[in-house]
Design a protein that fits this description.
Helices cover 43% and strands 8% of the residues. It is built from ten helices and five strands, in the order αααααααβββααββα. A five-stranded antiparallel beta sheet has the order 2-1-3-5-4. β1 and β2 form a beta hairpin.
Length: 207
């Protein structure tokens, strides 16, 4: 399935809440979710009865849109999470949090996850001293993520550092002046601030 390339604000409206896909625009009054808090389309304002399957599907779609992943990736991550020790739903969110593009966003070196994915693809980052341009790369405790030397002088990164809005989490240690960060622990469920009921996703994929 091809990646969605339409207006991302429609995705937020479909889920009925902000997914913070447009960076700073999500925090101002012009945000479409604030102005039109109903699903897009001709029948967006009509009342619909939610079924158990429908609720589970919405949770799964919400997670996919938060992290910008495709269905095939989602199923692959679920399989990985199911094979790990611990609670499958929490394992799934932990894997998604440790994606390179999400870590870049958490560090504050991108204003949104879509922007972080683009910056990673364009080769602006290194992991443990080596070039890393795969947004879906899963990081581990001890990994060091840093902006490449050539990119540190770009106006984009200078602006991001000057107006740093990192999503501070306990499992990340950020050295802003050095343009780098380190993963110091695995993400815990309480560190993941997205409004998700992950058990519904487990129920959906377990059918």
């Amino acid at each position: 399935m091809a990646r969605y390339t339409g207006p991302v604000c429609r995705l937020c409206r479909r889920e009925g809440q902000k997914l913070y896909l447009k960076g700073d625009k999500c925090y101002i009054d012009k945000c479409p979710v604030s102005k039109r808090n109903y699903a897009p389309g001709q029948h967006g304002q009509s009342r619909k009865k939610d079924t158990e399957y429908g609720l589970q599907l919405r949770e799964k779609q919400k997670v996919r849109r938060f992290y910008g992943i495709q269905e095939s990736q989602m199923r692959s991550y679920f399989t990985m999470a199911d094979r790990m020790q611990g609670i499958t739903g929490e394992n799934l969110l932990k894997i998604l949090e440790l994606r390179l593009d999400n870590v870049v966003y958490r560090m504050g070196f991108a204003s949104s996850r879509p922007e972080a994915r683009q910056l990673v693809k364009h080769g602006h980052f290194k992991v443990n001293g080596h070039k890393a341009d795969i947004p879906s790369y899963i990081l581990s405790v001890g990994d060091v993520i840093e902006v490449k030397d050539k990119s540190k002088n770009s106006p984009k990164f200078k602006e991001l550092v000057e107006n740093h809005k990192g999503n501070a989490v306990r499992w990340l240690e950020v050295e802003l002046e050095e343009y780098k960060g380190r993963i110091v622990a695995e993400p815990a469920r309480e560190d993941i601030d997205i409004p998700i009921e992950e058990h519904m996703i487990v129920e959906l994929y377990s059918k």
